[in-house]
Amino acid sequence: MLLYIIMALALRGQCQVVMPQVLKAGDTIAVVSPSSAPDSMTVAKGCMALREWGYVPIVAPHALKEYHGFAGTADERAADMLWALQDSTVKAVISSRGGDGAVQVLQRIPLQEFANHPKWVIGFSDVTALHSAEVAAGVMSIHGSMCDGIAARGERDSVNAIMQRILQGQLPVYQVPAHPLNQQGEASGILVGGNLSVFCGLAGSDYDFLNRVDDGLILFMEDTNESMSKVDRMLHLLEIRGILPKLKGMIVGHFSKYKSPENGFADMYEMLHEYLQHYHIPVCYDFPVGHHSRYNFPMVEGCRVHLSVGQSATRIEFVK
């Protein structure tokens, strides 16, 4: 019983978040589909891009299947993820696409599996569920482009170059122009976040990275196809849970495919600012991360960052 309690405390965030091992040329990267069914050509192009980076891609057994819109049954998708985690020859895992269904995979994978096999898991959108599990288990993860993104942008693209450097152990420093609604200030903390509706859906579960007990969190969020009123509801959920009052800082990424104006607010940022201005923390708006962003900057989940929101620019430095 004592051992179980110790393990439970560790998985709830009382331990340091570890960085997966650095990749080298010739290492294997598994391509999995934990969510919606991908297009086979997109996966093929993604694998081609990974080869150009110097890695050996291997497509999981069920990654190209289709079952009611998902990439195979929940058991098949979970089996692929477990294989990718447990196979010692696989050094990192990238999702073919997002969509829907990753939460079905989580409930079939014990949290301890992520802790036992610390590997980079790459993706965004619905893959936020996997990032949440990784960080909850004490492992860093990469919120970034998937097969379609890395293939479309090309080997010489600056965002792809950042991703490659992260896999090689080099953490990024970002600087972007200021937004008029920004709240200036500086803060340090552990970075977590991603798709707002996905991580809010994990509230209170063992896979919820917001359960972590650290000396401070910096939250980033983005979403698509969610109305301003629904985002407002999710924001209040974070407030009711006591998350917002504990944050050291917030990074607001891109929100796309929503109707505006709504409820008297011109856009999503104006609505969010209505509430976030009451928290005396640095807040950055319009950071280039998320759906339909021209630049979906890779974000290392679980990594300590220093956030500086100034009058003319916002700077985010990832710290080992």
Index terms:
320 residues; alpha/beta; 7-stranded mixed beta sheet; 32% helix; 23% strand; disordered N terminus
Structural account:
This protein is an alpha/beta fold and 320 residues long. 32% of the residues lie in helices and 23% in strands. It is built from eleven helices and 13 strands. It has helices at 2-14, 40-52, 74-86, 102-106, 111-116, 128-136, 147-153, 158-167, 196-200, 228-240, 268-276; strands spanning 28-32, 56-59, 90-95, 120-123, 141-143, 173-177, 185-195, 217-224, 247-256, 283-284, 299-301, 304-309, 313-319. Strands 6-13-12-7-8-9-10 form a seven-stranded mixed sheet. Strands 2-1-3-4-5-11 form a six-stranded mixed sheet, with helices on both faces. The longest helix has 13 residues, at 2-14.
Please bin the fraction of helical residues. Answer: 25-40%
Rg (CA only): 19 Å
Low-confidence runs: 1-14
Strand proportion:
15-25%
Termini, distance in Å? Answer: 34 Å
User: Structural class, from helix and strand content?
Assistant: alpha/beta
- Large-scale geometry: globular
